[in-house]
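help with this:

***
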Amino acid sequence: MDGEVPNIKKWIVFYPVYINSKKTIAEGRRISISKACENPTCSEIGDCCSHFKLPFAIEIDKAYPRDFMQRGRVRVLLKKEDGTLYNPSISSRKELMHHVAELVPRHPGRVKKQELASTSNAGSSKSGKGGKKKR
């Protein structure tokens, strides 16, 4: 970026729903479940874009049209003004979705959450049935 404000209206729009394995195709998922990841966030997608050295902008106030409760989207620029790619391995939206979905499960914040969840579940294992019995 040359210090000027970029026009992000022309950038590719990337909603987290596109790579969410919990959603159906009718709900907005755009890649197969086997390649999708579970509940990605805008910040994780943004971190993946910075890892791929792609310019991006996170828009928190925007909502996904099919599910307006789903907040946030990421704008990504794949090509420079002269038409060359910022990252030669990513030339289309689909490739970007596949690469990001592959990288999100290994995101540092997500790995820490999984470690915390596994340690807290190990200590609190309760067995047996509770509650009132019918007469």
Observations:
- The mean pLDDT is 85.
- The chain is about 25% helix and 15% strand.
- Helices lie at 42-51, 93-103, 108-123.
